[in-house]
Amino acid sequence: MENAQRHRPAEGPDNPDARPGESGTALELLVHGVGGTTPETMLDDPRTVRITGDGIAAVFRRADDADAERRPAGRREGPVPEAYVWCNLTSGNGTRALWLLLLPFMVVNIAHWMRPTARGRRRTVRLYGLLVRLAGLSLTVLLVAAACEVALDLAAWQCAGTHACAERHSWLGFLSPEVSDGGWWSPPGRRLALAAVVPTALTGLLWLLSLRTWSAYESQQPMTQDREPEEDGGPTALGRPGFWYGRRLVARLRAAHTAAGLLTVAAAVGSAAARYDREPGGPGVLGVLGVLLEAALAAGAGAVVWVVCRRGRSERRVDSGLDRRLVRWLPLAALVLLALTVVYAGWERPGWRSAGRLPGDATFGALALAQGLLVIVLAGVAHILHRTDPDRRAAMRGLAGPAVAMLACALGGVMSGGVSQRVSDWLDGTGTSMPGPPVLLTWQASVIPLLLVLLLVLCGWLARRAWRIAREERAAVEREYAGETGDPGRTRRIASVRAMAALTDRGPRILAVTSTATLLLGAGALVGALATDRTPGEAARGSYAVVHGAAETAEALGSWLIGLGFILFVTWGRRAYKDASARRTIGILWDVGTFWPRAAHPFAPPCYAERAVPDLTWRIATWTRTTGGRLVISGHSQGSVLAAAAAWQLPPSARRRVALLTYGSPLERLYGRWFPAHFGPDALAFLHREVDCWRNLYRRTDPIGGPMRLPGDRGPDVDRPALRDPLAYGRTEAHPLPAPILGHSDYQADPAFVEERRRLLARLRAAEVPAPRPTGERGGPAA
């Protein structure tokens, strides 16, 4: 392991003393998948050296191959293996599990990239991106509003203003007008001003986390490419020069979302004081100040929305500019307004007492209504885009993006309602001294048991579907292993694994049912809260006993389920960053989500591909240029997605000098179906035409990888027929012990892997290799 961490210069492409093009060495650049691995495992050698890179992402070789470019190619069989290890981009210490708390932000960011393919609909595409960005902004406001609900309303306003509650929680005693005998902090406005530290600190933490990751990820410069004006990556935006460089947009969105969070805190602090000042006989001067502050907050909110709506991503060029004045002054202006509001709320108001709830019902109701309308309009826009260029393989007929945006909003609402309810129950032990959280949050928590019942029904449907598929697969197994199937148990195991792998293709139906039910239940919760202005249990009081009992049970059970789920979520997330096996199990969704740049939400977890794709592009382009050698990009699982993205980013001259070998690849099965605008059939067909040659391996037992399904008669050019898994049904001379069912792992153990790699290298050998260019030329390889 010590050798793996030692950086030793190689007498190869990174050494200026080496003579390029001397040996015609062939290189296999290995890119691992979800969960990562070690360079020793990838290269099958305990002695490895780092060729280039740092402790986060680097390229490794076997120690014996460090100077392979200097030695004659005839001394070795096969290509020189080289491993790109990027697992530290998505894993690290346990504190990074806190990113899981930002799951709603990540999910809404995924929805941005799920738009359908569209031609000649530039304005409609922009409208789609705008709607998703507005949904992301509403999630930021919802998160900060939930923090305000907990700190300002439940703790400072309700509990500290109630004698019984303040006595039970001595740490709130100095805020209570009765327990502290009218101390300086006891007036309601000052209690709210002090409690505002919590949501303000949360907003500052999000800003700081986004700023740090922005400096580490979005600031990675892509290659300077000499392109013709029409060279923009073909039918996918993944090949555009500025796709993996979202520095300017993320900075703008970070400023807008930070300002939105601060303005939300200011509105929560000042609303109660302004409402009191507007009462008959209230302070005249303070009433005028309250109106002015509310007008200023409304103007600030308008400025935030304008910034979010004004600009999307710039992909056709590398946009190195920064809106420095906007990025600096917008959050600062919001912070100044918050400070003025704190001073205004803390002003002495004789006779002011806290009673009831803060005016939060209207805020959460307006957010829920706005999010529902945004999702509905987004669905209409997605439907229009899908009709312009229908793709039969697209998930949910192009409506996957709106469905995922709905789930993001539901996650935000459920987390807000659950945490508020749990804090309320903790503060109010008797359940009688405090009004509790806003009614809408209680209704939202109460729908969780219904959703769980629906999910159980869907799981039952999936189990029945898997049983039927397994029964059909038994006949297929017997045909594939003709003359060997003498063990019914072995046949059932193989068929069951294939059936479970096939359930991946049922994902769109599950998402469609879940998102539709979530939208309907959310609408029902909003209507119930507005119509009754009481919690579900109180609203059902006086009705049939079974109805009242069900309402109270759903209210209590939903609250506890959310609290338990929140704890399990953080626990599993921390385990995933420390345990490699757990990381592989639950890391699929996470790696898919963080593959995409932050285009809709700046507080989402950072995009590792904005580091990995430029790394691979630089390595491939510079190695092929300086050596004139043959290169095979060998990508497994998520590594195949990175390999394809890097191939799209290569200049056309370099793109046509490399071969692509993918195995266990989700390029079409997951990315092509869920992200049709970027990985659809036209995009994959373009990649097939542009790279010199491409082969793809998959198994029917693999739940992630699948064929590329290129349109027309080009499919067999890329897809090899499904590999046998297991390699042997029973004991044979070649496999005296039972062969394992490999599924998604260990594709290199199959003889087909070596065979396809050899064929790719042979085809590259037959191709005309341009003469290498001098290493001192600027601007990278010519297009």
From TrEMBL:
Biased composition (Basic and acidic residues): 1-20
InterPro entries: AB_hydrolase_fold
Domain of life: Bacteria
Transmembrane segments: 127-147, 192-211, 255-274, 286-308, 329-347, 367-386, 398-420, 440-463, 510-531, 557-574
Entry keywords, A to Z: Membrane, Transmembrane, Transmembrane helix
Record carries keyword Protein transport: no
Region spans: Disordered: 1-24, 220-239
Protein name (record): Membrane protein
Organism whose genome encodes this protein: Streptomyces toyocaensis
